[in-house]
Amino acid sequence: MNAPAAATLPPLLQAALRPLPLAPLDPLLGLVLRAVLRRHPAIFDRLGGHAQKSFGLRPTDLPFALVLTPCPEAPRIAAVRSLPRHGLDARISGPLRALVALAEGEMDGDALFFSRTLTVEGDMEAVLALRNAMDGEGLDLVRDVATALGPLSPLAERLGIRGRRLLDRLSRPRGKPAWS
Amino acid sequence: MELICPAGTPAAFRQAVDAGAHAVYCGYRGETNARNFPGLNFSHAEMREAIAYAHARGARVLVAINTFPRAGALDLWHRAVDEAVAAGADALILADIAVLDYAARTHPAQRLHVSVQAAAANPEAVRFYVEAFGVRRVVLPRVLSVAEIAAITRAVAPCETEVFVFGGLCVMAEGRCSLSSYATGQSPNMNGVCSPAGHVAYRQDGATLVSRLGDFTINKFAEGEPAGYPTLCKGRFATPRMDGYIFEDPVSLDAAELLPALGKAGVTGLKIEGRQRGRAYVESVVRAFRAALDALEAGRPIVSPGLLSLTEGQSTTQGAYRKTWR
Prior knowledge:
With 180 residues, chain A is α+β, with helices and mostly antiparallel strands. Chain A contains eight helices and five strands. Chain A is globular, with a radius of gyration of 16 Å. The relative contact order of chain A is 0.21. By secondary structure, chain B is an alpha/beta fold. Chain B folds into two domains: 240 residues, TIM Barrel (Alpha-Beta Barrel), CATH 3.20.20; 50 residues, no CATH class. Helix content of chain B is 30%, strand content 21%. Chain B is built from nine helices and 15 strands. In chain B, helix 3 crosses helix 4 and helix 5 runs parallel beside helix 6. Chains A and B meet through helix 3, helix 5, strand 5 and helix 6 of A and helix 1, strand 8 and helix 9 of B. Chain A: It holds the Pfam family SCP2. Chain A: InterPro entries: SCP2_sterol-bd_dom, SCP2_sterol-bd_dom_sf.
């Protein structure tokens, strides 16, 4: 990923995505989460008790957010129109590209915070544990998901790499920082 | 000079070695090391694997066991020392005299370094550690000028000196600072955490970012203003004479330009701070400083590392190395 940290998706794309239903996203997100946790079970070791907590992830350049509960017994992730006011232990917000780079350890979380690209609220122990658990595992979302798809793996990896390149191409610095 | 790089996870450790670290420092999970943050640090098995990885690639491993034990609770620190020695650590970085005494008596062949947490800032203090425990190196606190570092290095030879060249800048006499304890009851000295995450809160007040530590508002960052860590030493204070930063601004140390001077001062170890940072930080900073060090040794000019985007407050300083009065 070579685009600057604060790069965001174009507003036109955000507007085009807004009317689309979220329900079809949930099975896909569930597949990604299970694939990552299957390939990186040590995440739970670093998360410890924080695995039971609920994290709100809000890509500021997408018209939806995610609620993640890593919980080893029943990991859950769901797309929501906006993060609930109550019931979340922590919230992490930033442009999609920065959130993906953070998850994969390609950008440093403290640097994203210093530059105000990323905002964090709530339980900071949980946020740090999640950040360190992901960074320490060296996630590769495309490869993790492709690996889980068995015979479809090469095709999935090719599609994933194209999707990543598209995200890089579409994400550009757009004046004001993408936090709010 | 030897480039000593931080690692908070095995992945960061491998990144540091692969990026050109001569040595990597790291610590065990728990309160025996001064970076005791959630989700960070090494299990005993991870430490053994990391040391094997480094040794296979010609890099050394320094294990930090550099907090001060609670009275009557030395066992945890003793076990960490024993485990690090058994794992093949090239040196132990220790701060507490009881832990140094245990390590020196129990493992007389083990190389020992004095941690920056011991705040050994003059030749007499360093000589005490050399004579009492046979230490081979002292990490100097970040409160000395280059001239002072040169004088201490000359005075304590053959004991080696090590200094920080990049990263988080602790401006206090390390190991003695009680600001975090004052606000939260926990400190880097005893618990391994400055401004522990469990006491930190961030809130968006409109476009303003408000950071709090315990019951204290540490800072308010206006829209677009680069942020810093929620530490009291880099907080903004309202005082009768002025409002603002009275100890230090949110800023990181960058002594890349001073590498030639530090070399002339006789320093052996150049340390990068940041065991709590991610792999991206470790990779970028280690690669940049290794290139600078190689350039220095080859007699080429040192190119600025260009690491501003990774720094606290998006700002750098040479700190006390170029001391000025306020």
